[in-house]
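Aim 2, interim progress. The first record below pairs a target sequence with its structure tokens.
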Amino acid sequence: MRRPKIIYIGGTPMTGKTTIARILSCRLQYECISTDDIGAAITAVTDGELYPRFHYMSGHDHRDYYTRTGMNTQIRDINAYHAALWPALRVLINNHATWGNPLVIEGWALRPAYMAGLRGDVAGLFLLADDALIEQRALDSPFTDGAADRALMVRRYVERSRRYTSEIRSEITRLGLSAITVTHMLKPKDIAEECMRVLGCEG
């Protein structure tokens, strides 16, 4: 069975994208890249005044950012960041699809509208989760450790996740893309197997 050369895994943070991408890359012997790592590298070599969309959290402790920044501003910041990052991601994906090695790429910067516009040997899906799962994973993650008001930080984080998920869910449906709903009952290997089935990578 022929497998897509580029596999993408999108969805909001804390849905398990990184874990699933690593499982898939090991099973398929593909390279694996996170959009978070690419974004961090770009931020490290750009000037905040010239490229403010890459530096929206500069000067903020990430825990304070979530508790003190209004939700509309948080949504605006991440939308602008993803829009600024997309040209670099598109070149990376196109290069791998054309002449590079097979690749699994994951990250929430992989918006449905962006992925639907790609051409070539590219396939993927989005992981979706409910508020309860995101909340529990945020509480279990060291990401929230040390927050002055941890409960507020988690509530804000879950609210942003809810709004983002609602937005991409409607886009996924409208664009005819694939998605898998992640629940606490599913183990990573089960989710990976379902991804393989949806992507036609079984066998």
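The second target in this work package is listed in the same format:
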Amino acid sequence: MTKMTRIRSAAFLPVFLCLAETACTSGGDLNVGDDRSGEFGQVLEDYAAQWDGYAQAYTFRGDGSDRVRLTLDASGNGSLRFGDEELIGPATEVEALYPPLGPAQDPTDYGGGIRSGFAYPVAGATVEAARLQLSSDTETLMGSWCALAGPEPVPGYPCDIGAIPETWNAGEGDCSFGPERTPVDCFIALQCPLCDCDGATCSTTDAQQMRVDGALSDDGNTFEGTLQLGVPDGERVTIVLTRQ
């Protein structure tokens, strides 16, 4: 091999290696696999991120915001959060409304379900046909209050979904039960039907589920889908989230 041939071969080698590794650019290193336009969303790991966005033409009970946040890890576990309200701590008093009314909430619009200020747990999210599918129990919101109340927050008064006192009166600030019309705090009477008790402990009823079904944009940075507010017949709302 002549000297000129050796020079040309040496000059060609870096170019060959660069093409083989598909990782050379004039502006710095490029990780192999970065150019996946149109391929995002096939596996669960593509959705593992913190997402922040909004619900179209919908506001959430509590603070009246349309904000939606989703946090998800590569195993499909995380949380769904709505609104801008600060997270609400666990219940500390049985004879009190829990969660407390939000800053933009009508006092008559109370109950379990979806509202701002709570991180609803997500477990076991899956991907099918390039669409993320996940669900969460809307009644987990009441878990701490039900546990605090217990099966019998007032002697003789059962705290349980479907446990109906023998007689019942619920006027404004005047609640009672049983043949003797034993007084019971109205907040207890209002909230106990959202609990499920086994004789020793109380938890939430698991009566409602919310579901999310959606897909990623071509660049993997936007998630758009449907939030179903209760299964099987709950309202469906379009949500648009951006990777943070």
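The helical segments are 3-21, 143-149, 186-191. This observation will shape the mutagenesis plan for the next reporting period.
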